[in-house]
Structures are given as structure tokens and as C-alpha cells.
């Protein structure tokens, strides 16, 4: 069994408006509802692959507390892969 590291940060107290590309990525992750890798996420936003700006947006979405990320060890030249999922909306107090 491989160790899995989960990277999360607390939500920003002052949410900032998202760029259209960031919103598209967030919407795609919310639609899936589970962990997806970069290849699958790229397909869901109608791209062949994510570019470096998409990866930066993913990091900013993590920093804003809107998504979670984890690094999973795997065989290959890099030795790991990144997976992402949207943070479920907080349950409203009744």
C-alpha cells in the first residue's frame, strides 16, 4: 500500500471572484464529484492537456479552499500523479 498525502488549506475569509478559466475548472471538478487526475480534468474542460497556467489556477483554487489535492505515488519517470476534487459545500445550519 502506498502512503497518500493530502494537501489542504483553510478557506479564504474573503472569497475573490474567479476568472472564467478558474470557474470552468471548478465547475468541472464539482460535476465529477470525486478525485480526478490532470488528464481527466483536461478532457472535462475540452483540452488535450492542462497547461502551466491551468496548474497555477489549480494551486490558487486549493489556496482559496475551493478544491483539495493529493499526490499519489505511481510507477514511471515522475513517480507520482496529482488528483483533485472540489470541496463539498458546507452544510447550512438549520
Order of helices and strands: EHEHHEE
Main sheet: strands, sense, barrel: 4 strands, antiparallel
Helix content: 25-40%
| CATH-level-4 superfamily name | Winged helix-like DNA-binding domain superfamily/Winged helix DNA-binding domain
Shape: globular
In the CATH scheme, the class would be Mainly Alpha
Percent range for β-strand residues = 15-25%
Runs with pLDDT <50, length 5+? 1-5
N-C termini distance = 41 Å
**Strand element count:** 4
Spatial sequence of strands, sheet with the most strands: 1-3-4-2
- Fold-level CATH name: Arc Repressor Mutant, subunit A
Question: What is the correct CATH architecture?
Answer: Orthogonal Bundle
Look at the structure and give the mean pLDDT. Answer: 84
Number of helices: 3
Q: What is the radius of gyration?
A: 14 Å
Number of domains: 1
Describe the model.
There is one protein chain. 34% of the residues lie in helices and 20% in strands. A hairpin with a 6-residue loop joins strand 3 (67-73) and strand 4. Helix 1 crosses helix 3. Mean pLDDT is 84; it is low at 1-5. A 4-stranded antiparallel beta sheet has the order 1-3-4-2. The N and C termini lie far apart (41 Å). It has a single domain (5-9, 18-86), classed as Winged helix-like DNA-binding domain superfamily/Winged helix DNA-binding domain (Arc Repressor Mutant, subunit A), CATH 1.10.10.10. By secondary structure, it is an alpha+beta fold. It contains 3 helices and 4 strands. The chain has helices at 20-32, 38-44, 52-63; strands at residues 5-7, 36-37, 67-73, 80-86.
Amino acid at each position: 500500500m502506498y502512503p497518500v498525502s493530502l494537501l489542504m488549506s483553510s478557506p479564504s475569509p474573503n472569497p475573490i471572484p474567479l476568472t472564467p478559466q478558474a470557474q470552468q475548472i471548478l465547475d468541472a471538478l464539482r460535476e465529477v464529484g470525486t478525485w480526478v487526475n490532470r488528464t481527466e480534468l483536461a478532457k472535462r474542460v475540452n483540452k488535450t492537456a492542462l497547461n502551466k497556467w491551468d496548474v497555477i489556477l489549480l494551486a490558487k483554487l486549493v489556496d482559496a479552499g475551493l478544491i483539495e489535492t493529493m499526490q499519489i505515488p505511481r510507477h514511471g519517470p515522475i513517480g507520482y500523479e496529482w488528483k483533485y476534487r472540489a470541496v463539498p459545500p458546507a452544510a447550512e445550519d438549520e
